[in-house]
Amino acid sequence: MEMVPWIRVLILLVACLFPASVECMVRHYKHGIRQLRTGWADGPAYITQCPIQPGQQFIYNYTITGQRGTLWWHAHILWLRATVHGAIVILPKHGVPYPFPKPHSEKVLVLGEWWKSDVEAVINEALKSGLAPNVSDAHTINGQPGPVSSCTSQGGFTLPVETSKTYMLRIVNAALNEELFFKIAGHQLVVVEVDAVYTKPFKTHTVVIAPGQTTNVLLTADRKAGKYSVIASPFMDAPIAVDNKTATATLHYSKTLTSSRTFLTAPPPKNATSIATNFTNSLRSLNSIKYPARVPLKIDHSLLFTVGLGVNPCKTCVNGSRVVADINNVSFVMPKIALLQAHFFNISGVFTDDFPGRPPVKFNYTGTQPINLATTTGTRLYRLAYNSTVQLVLQDTGLITPENHPIHLHGFNFFVVGTGLGNFNPNKDQNKFNLVDPVERNTVGVPSGGWTAIRFRADNPGVWFMHCHLEVHTTWGLKMAFVVDNGKGPNQSLLPPPTDLPKC
Ligand code: C2O
What we know:
Its cofactor is Cu cation. Residues 1-24 form the signal peptide. With 504 residues, the protein is mainly β. The chain folds into 2 domains: 105-281, Cupredoxins -  blue copper proteins (Immunoglobulin-like), CATH 2.60.40; 301-484, Cupredoxins -  blue copper proteins (Immunoglobulin-like), CATH 2.60.40.420. The protein is built from 5 helices and 29 strands. The strands form 6 sheets. It has a 6-stranded mixed beta sheet, with no helix packed on it. Strands 7, 9, 12, 14, 15 and 16 form a 6-stranded mixed beta sheet that branches. The longest helix is centred in the N-terminal third of the chain and has 11 residues, at 119-129. Residues 1-27 have low confidence and may be disordered. The structure holds CU-O-CU linkage. CU-O-CU linkage binds next to strand 2 and strand 28. CU-O-CU linkage (C2O) binds next to strand 2 and strand 28.
């Protein structure tokens, strides 16, 4: 293997071993890690492995090649990632500076979501009734909701700073079902990285971050000494959603008296789509000589996937129907053995590789009721040749209500070459794609009643999950997987499974 074991890795909250090469012992999915040829260590249950049973152990062994930045890890079965998650910070190669002045220090901020009840009971109850699950009881910043919450009267997380110093905040959205706004009273933030890829720096008062995404910002303590509130509040434009909870932390200048007042900031309205659009439209790849944006220009597979919610009949459900979610009208059914095993050992009958590259029916994707209410089900994959290039347009559908879908692809980074509202129009919209410096990431929001176009190169053989990172939508079936065949050259094939891979 020509992988370079040079990266210093710091895994927070997980046990980690540092032998001669970088090998980490972590449980569950490493969100966004591009581990070439070792899909066995990716982690999603029944996609790349069967779950680790109580008392069992499995060592995730993978090499990090060329990546650096903020990523994270989380449990990848049922709703367990609500509490089982943590940040992964990959530092640059020793001696390689950031493409911006070195911050005085760095802080990880993990945004989360908390239910007072058992999350498994919450989703099981919803699946039984066919209705949407209860929303969470609190949002959290580093595990604490802060004072404005029904859960606690405690003060919340404190972020200490010194006047005139600059800090890098590594923000992770680990919430299950909420996109979030993030703000600090009185301070501007400079965005420098998303999903472990540098961006052209830009200033903003509000960061918009979907579940699955990470964002690094620089914060300069340039205000008068004092306490400033730090907030994370929901961004939701689904009309049915009811969630107004704000998590609060405090930015605390040293030399500030504990008694002094806190400067507050109001959360944006939860449906402030213009703030979200301004933010995402400002994201650009750095695209410098050192960090070029390698956007695929020649496309082998041009795909159009509709993503959305629908309803299927259900006799035992409250309304005689249940909410389902689908991609191209296929609601994904989890297999009984891991897809990667079935692929590697040629076990038939586990999946088919006939996932439709286009929606099966032509209809107005947004704003109207669909012609076909019944969604099909299946364990269908889309097959890609090694190193082939893909353009994928993700079109939100309005079957029940249009909603933002943060779509996450395992195993790859992709370039977000275009986005818009309404129906994607190939003749008109394609000419406007940004093929020069589009942002590169692993999770992208498909806007409500709109579309997003991404491009990637299938240079990682194996089976790679793609799903909405709103956990409730994943549960309802908004997921599929790509199977990427081996290449013919050296170092282009999936390695054999590790001997301790959990048995199904
Ligand atoms: Cu972070 Cu498949 O998810």
